[in-house]
Amino acid sequence: MRRRNCGYSPGVTATLRFDDVRRRFGRLAVLNGVSGRVEPGGMLLVTGRNGSGKSTLLRCLSGLLAPDAGTIAYRENGADLDVAERRRRVGVVAPDLAFYEELTVQENLEFFARLRRTGPERGHAVLERLGLPLDRLAGALSSGMRQRLRWAWALLHSPRLLLLDEPFQNFDRAGEDGARALLAEHLQNGGLAVVASPLPLDFDHVSGHLELGV
Amino acid sequence: MKTLLAWLLWLWMCLVIVGAFFYAPVVLQGFRTPGSSRIVFFHVPMAWSSFIGFIAAAVWSLLYLIRRNPRHDRAAAVAIEIGLLFGILATLTGAMWARIEWGAWWNWDPRQTSILAVILFYGAYLALRQSVEEPEKRARLAAAYALLGLAVTPFLFWVVPRITFSLHPDPVVNRSGKVDMDAANEQVLFASGFGFAALFFWMQNLQCRLEALAERRAALKE
Amino acid sequence: MSRDTSSWASEAAAVFVKEWRCEFRTRYALNTLALFAFTTLVVVSFSLGPMGVARAQGTAVLPVLLWIILLFSVAAGLPRAFVQEEETHTATALRLAATPSALFCGKLLYGLTLVLALEVFVTPAYLIMTSLEVTSPWLLAGVLAAGGYGLAAGSTLVAAIIAQARSKGALFSVLSFPVLLPLLVLTVELTRGAAAGDAAGVSLPVLLLYDASVTVAGLMLFPVVWNP
User: Fold this and answer.
1) How far is C108 from chain B (nearest CA, A)?
2) Low-confidence residues of chain A, pLDDT below 70?
3) How far apart, in whole angstroms, are the C-alpha atoms of residue A148 and residue A93?
4) Cα separation of C226 and C228, whole Å?
5) Are A210 and A47 in contact (CB under 8 A)?
6) What pLDDT was estimated at residue B173?
7) Which residues pair with C104 in a beta bridge?
8) Touching C: which chains, 3+ CB pairs < 8 A?
9) Minimum Cα–Cα distance from B218: chain A residue
């Protein structure tokens, strides 16, 4: 079986560093000064019980949420990217990511590819590996198939930083194996990843571990 | 220092009231009931203060969007609240005057219409703030709406007098818009304007401090 | 390999195409607008049609009602453009992928085409059913185009604001009215002028200035509204 190379852009070195990130919702302090760093090829595993702030941290890192305090510095080739650029450069898989139900999988990917100013080929390649027909309506997908689409969407623009919140949720054996392989390739090519999981995740390439809610 | 200024303001306003009733000559030809025209010394400055609220809120909103300092957001919201208060007072005094002078509480006179539109805007701003729970989002959305309001409301002030004037030519409308008074009246009017503007900022300052204290108390309670 | 296959304009176009593609498959906005407009049209022309109001009064009253029909139809059908993104949670993907200004323009163009389609449907029907005579049809067309643009632009920005708040339906009307009031005052007066032949002190350039104002405000404020 010839494996389609999902062409990660080589030569771009990225680093992520966050210091003393705090975020509260009303009275509840969800993040209480969290810090970490990720080097090229590194994967930071974020664990903690439900409600410990894993998703909140990932949303702060992706730029969807502004922290109350602290700094988040994402650099590509030594240059600092501001929040707006970071938002567009990262690849995100999260349980609340949804796509347009009235459009097919292919139409969704093409739309987002045009927004990302790239072609949909990467997305198609990922879906071919994970297994998902392109002409299915996004509204007619099962939860496992939606997860596959989320992975394809996340990798569409060859991001150097992957922010994965419960990335193997709803996957069957084949889907999970395929996603793990994609993640391993991404890291081997020098990409970064921050993975949040409530349950212990058995993964080879973990370079750092952050336990929240402790 | 602040207490001293507050007392000075009180004194100033007392002088304004005295001046309005005793110093300023009975006034403004062309009014049917000249005595009632003294209301101009209160009604007009109230309207001015209401507009100050609008502009102040827009400025603080812009500052908030640049600096993201919650104090600026609070200042903008308070400015709108006080602007609303003065706007309502201006409308009420204007309606009273209109009743005496023109016989009806409401005439769709351009100024009445304009101040009503501004009050509606204030109400909408406060309704927006009520509908967003998260402080950061609330501040952001409210600031954007305040600036949008600033972008469009001037058209109303420009357009409405032109339309209504052509349909209902009314010499009184034209006259009361211009500062066409003799010196004593002008002095009282501008003194009152200054006083009401100072009153606005004094109330604004008080309310902001009050809310800041309330927030600190709530935070300490945890 | 990522290549820069598109530009800002292409992003905006992609948003525009996506909106219409989704719209054609559900027809939600088109149905809402059409139903609302048709119902109000029938009611108005029934009570104020040729038999209901004298000719002179007609010129005073009928232009207002046309714009009321347009305003309320827009309020019924346009906010969905942003509200639905938030409710179906597609907004997350959009926030991560789209350039805010391109997104705003795409949504604005979609709203504009909706409003223009609405006007094309409503105005001739209205003129016929109420027998309102129009002295300068070119002025009327200009007012409808420029006024329609103002409606779309103002509504799009307000929709973006309320989509992130609670009680979105009621809040849209409350927030959009003060913003659209100057526009409506202008368009009604100009429509009256187009019907009667005398524009009574206002002119089309002021309307265009309003449009420009709202557009600039939208472009500058939308990124703030959309992203934290």
Assistant:
1) 16
2) 1-10
3) 10
4) 7
5) yes
6) 41
7) none
8) A, B
9) A27
**Which segments in chain B show pLDDT lower than 70?**
26-34, 161-181, 222
Burial class (CB in 10 A: 0-12, 13-18, 19+), A135: exposed
Give the B window 5-64 contacts with C, CB below 8 Å.
Answer: none
| Segment 146-205 of chain B within 8 Å of chain C by CB | 147-149, 151-153, 155-156, 158-160, 162-163, 165-167
B141 interface with C at CB cutoff 8 Å: yes
* Tokens 């200024």, located at residue: B5
Q: Is A66's Cβ below 8 Å from some Cβ in B?
A: yes
CB contact (8 A) between residue C25 and residue A102: yes
**pLDDT tens-digit series, residues C151-190:** 999 999 999 999 999 877 789 999 999 999 999 989 998 9
Q: Mind giving me the DSSP string for B156-188?
A: HHHHHHHHHHHHS--HHHHHHHS----HHHHHH
Judge: B134–A25 Cβ closer than 8 Å, yes or no. yes
- Maximum alpha-carbon separation in chain A: 55
Distance, in Å, from the CA atom of A120 to the CA atom of C52, rounded to the nearest integer, reads 60
ipTM: 0.91
CB contact under 8 A, C209 and B123: no
Q: Which residue stretches of chain C are H helix?
A: 8-26, 28-48, 55-77, 80-87, 91-97, 100-130, 137-162, 168-196, 204-226
* H/E element, B88: helix B70-102
The owner of tokens 């595993």 is A45
Q: How far does the CA of residue B135 sit from the closest CA of chain A (Å)?
A: 8
Kindly tell me if the per-residue pLDDT of C6 is higher than 70: no
Distance from C-alpha of A112 to C-alpha of C95, rounded to nearest angstrom: 11
Best residue of C96, C110, C225, C227 to probe chain A, by most A CBs closer than 10 Å: C96
Q: Which residue of B has its CA nearest to A25?
A: B134
**This prediction's pTM:** 0.91
Q: Kindly state whether B186 is in contact with chain A, defined as any CB-CB distance less than 8 angstroms.
A: no
Residue C51 falls in which region: left (phi positive, over 0), alpha (psi -120 to 50) or beta: alpha
pLDDT in tens, C16-69: 999 999 999 999 888 988 998 989 888 887 777 666 666 667 777 888 889 999
